User: What shape does this take?
Amino acid sequence: MTAKTSTRKRSRTAAEEEKAVLSSEDEFEIPEINGDESSDEEDFSPGDEDSEDEEEESSGDEIEDEIDSDEIPSEDESISKRNGTSNGDTTTGSDGEDTSDPIDNVKVVVGADGGPRYIYPEIDPVYDSDDTDVEETNTIGNIPLEYYENYPHVGYDINGKRIMRPAAGKALDTLLDSIELPKGWTGLIDKNSGAALNLTEEELEIVKKLQRSEITEDGYDPYPDLVEYFSNTVEQMPLSSAPEPKRRFIPSKHEQKRVMKIVKGIREGRILPYKPQAEKTDEPEFYDIWADDAPQKPDHIMNIPAPKLPPPTHDESYNPPAEYLPNETEKKDWEDQDPEDREKNYLPRSHKALRLVPGYNGFVNERFERCLDLYLAPRVRRNKLNIDPASLLPKLPSPDDLKPFPTTCATVYRGHEGRVRSVAADPSGVWVATGGDDGTVRVWEILTGRQVWKLKVSSDEAVDSVTWRPTSEGRILAAACGNEILLVVPPIFDSEEETHGKEILSAGFGYATNKEGKKEAPGTWSKPDSELEEEGVVVTITVRKTVKYIAWHRRGDYLVTVSPEDVRKAVCIHRVSTHLSQTPFKEKSVTKGIPQRVQFHPSKPLLFVATKRYIRIYDLAKAELSKTLKPGARWISSIDIHPQGDNLIVGSYDKRLLWHDLDLSTKPYRTLRYHDRGIRAVAFHRGGFPLFCSSSDDGTVQVFHGKIYSDLMENALIVPLKVLKGHKIVSHLGVLDVDWHPKQPWLFSAGADGTARLWN
Amino acid sequence: MSTDAMDLDSASISAPRVQINLSTRDPTLSVPLQSLRVPTNLKRYGLSTLVNHLLETAKPIPFDFLIDGQYLRTSIDEYLTQAGLSSEKPLDVEYVRSQLPPTYIGSFEQDDWISSIHLSPSPSSSILTGSFNGTAQITSLSGDVLVRTVPMHTHSVKTVTWISPPSPTNEATFLTAGIDRTINLWSYTPSADPSSTVQASPTTSYISHKSTITSLSYSPSTSQFLSASSDHTIALWSTNSSLLPTSTAPTSTSFSRKRRRTTSKLPTTERKGPLTVLTPHTAPVSQVIHSPDPTAAYSVSWDKSIITHDLVTSQVVDTRVTQHALLSIATLPSLNLIAAGSAARHITLHDPRASSKTVQSAVLRGHTNAVVTFARSPESDYVFASGGHDGCVRIWDVRSVSSSTSADEDGGKSGGSLFVIKRESGGGKVFGVDWSKDVGLVSVGEDKKIQVNRGEGMADVSVLEQS
Assistant: This one.
């Protein structure tokens, strides 16, 4: 049984039950309680409908539900219970009738599913099936009417007015009978005659017609029969007596034009008046089976034809040449391979004749694969951007036009054990000094690479920085080893220069002793021991922590040192002529961060202090901070100032080389990211060549052209020129320091691989 | 000869012919018939036999052939195809005596880098070398150390030159100079026993320079010598000590003091000052040489200029500024050319005469590092050798320059080297090279060795025994 029929049947049983309830209502004559009962019944019925139970069970359920729903048994409830049980009885009874009913008024038909199907008669809505219209408006309350027998009214309304007794039937009838109105009575009186103004029969008829919104005229037929005047049937007599128009007689111009067109076509042979008979020949018809069997589609802009399969090759022939036939091993290899790995999905085979070629069993599969290829791989017409990539590049001059610049390694300075930390070319351009992890300072001849002088400063500490005094006379080399700064006059110079240098350095000895005792100086100046003095060391300055970097002032009287480990006095300025050391910043808070590098401005009294993230420019004359540069690097490793003093390059451990124009902004003008690892050192050429370079832990030195124009409106031109490769990377360290030759476009680099190199 | 001609004829039956105009710059080798039609499949050997045939030489001379500044190394046919020339046009062919590739003969080792070399010109060849350890040595051709100088120099010797080469009768003298800024004049009498080593002592010290002395040049005709120094100066001296003022400059630097203590007592020398100091250069002077005319000198410097000095008036005659720092210079007197080696790895050829307008006439490329030394070929005026810091000695022919190549700056002509001689020891810079007829091509360098190369077929020399 389908669910539909079951619900239908159920609704029917529900209707039956209602009937039964109504009947029981008659029986028990307690309409109110029964009304409740029936509403209860209705409430429950949906639940019954939901459940897919048998009918008998459902009736049982109803009883149970009724019992279950009783929460507080009361007098009424007990009555209803009784009613319920009696109802249940009746329902069961009606159930019994149900089974018998179909016999009387239900037709049984064989349904589509083959089972019996009951067709019930339409339910006739008789009056007593519905009593919703009954209005119970008893305004006088439940008072026996005989109390008001002697009064004209039967109680009071809500306003306290008497409700008059309704007229009894008999009195009304008598009243109506007494009033006999004449036909056409209007209740109006004729002004002139004073007689009653009555309507005539005709007038009444007109009023009736008006009321029906009909045309009041007598005999008017709103629906007469249609007479077809303008039909295809030619009438004996014309409707209009007008003469025929002229155009009916003269031939049509347009027709003539069309005809003439056809005539012209015939004359020119475009139109054949008679279709030529197809010549019947006995020759068989041929078809070009290699032609595209797909009909040629009109060339649409979005139409992309499917790519063609390659034409068959030699080895696909039914009888390929012998060299295309696989030998045994190839055959075996092919069979051993996965079908997906095979280069070809067939093995060339030889047949003596075309008729001996067997059917190709892979045909369907192959077609299927092809179809998959065609519709799973969408073909898209790409709009190609026609931009010449070269045009997007900035217009930079070719490096060939910017010669000279260093391109190859000319000399390797070998000798250091361990890393070479620092390299510096002497101002005369003949010597180059290096300092390394082996605690030695060495001086080399530039071109030959010959070591001419060596000074063992320390056995356990590295020489972190070497710098020449940047003046033309008095050759002094400053070397930082541990917390000592050594001022040396290497014995490779002329005796005059040597003595001059020594005089410069030792001039301050007396001065220092005079000033002693005032306060604790950050650096102590002292004479070295005799052994070092013999080697050329004139003065040693001892500061509190390891010195990492030394920079000279351009006049050669001051040198500034950085010892990043010393939190409070990281930057020290030492004066050679007076042997005095001082810290320009009293408190750590002034410098804000650990200084990495310091540098004097090449012409102005400015001191550049690079901390991890910022570069602060201090005006030494006014003793104040004049500017703070924000390169945006995470950890600045090195800085260098352009010899003209308006530009600055910054190298950082996060691979960036930043060019600052001090006049423009505190942000870098250009960021160059060409290194693969952190930058260790940067340097400007100071001898007139517009060159600068950066060295990195990736073992390369990169050379750039950096030209500054005297025109303030024009920005600096920066062109990458050359990557110098040669230094080996030793324990993640590459090229640790770079320096330019003072006059030539030659570059010196110090590598962690224990060599320094000259590039030219 | 007739068979050769026959061969020529038989070879030429099928091959196309090309007209060649033979020419030479050597008047002794000129041929009467200068225009010939030769088969294009001829190679150098064929042409060489042809020229020998024409010259009717008793002993065949090997010839090389230059077509448009290039040596013919293939057949004429292939050359024509390469150059895209037609065989219809006559071809100008210049023939020169073959330069044979110098082969390695042997080498003598010393105990430190050798900075410079000078071969004595006379038959009794001895090799004067200066070493980075501050001494100079004279080595015989058999490898015996004939003379060793006392450690007068407190630092490396950078340059040496003979003044009077050893002869059985005369006292031999030579000059050394180096990083210690002094020039020392040494003299010795060669001993009869070649195996014993003579200690040479200095007689005179010439003191003027304030930095490394890079070069010395001695002119026998005027008995004057020039020294170039890194202090940007050139000093003119005379071997006649009486002409020179006595120098009063102090020498006792700390460095020399220390040396003095450790070594034995050194002989005292006459200390002399220069005749003149020339200061036209603004950078270290790398080399100075006398011009063929001994009253003039050429100098090159790191300031990129070649300066012609008049030694009589101490005036600058001519200044030519090139584009790169120059490190070495040599004259090719018969061609009126000077060759200058640069730090930018090439050699430029210049015409030093004031009449010439161009700065440079040709560029010779091939070295891969700075070119620091030159030596003229003893046999050909057109051939010279150059030594570079790339560890190679290259032999060049001035005739083999072509005006074609594209990468010229302003010279217009460029050329390649004939031969390359590498260091037998493997590597290291070449610091000095000299070339003489009887010894061969001798080069010294960072590998502490004196390397001797000689072209086979060169004039026979008494056998050089490899020690």
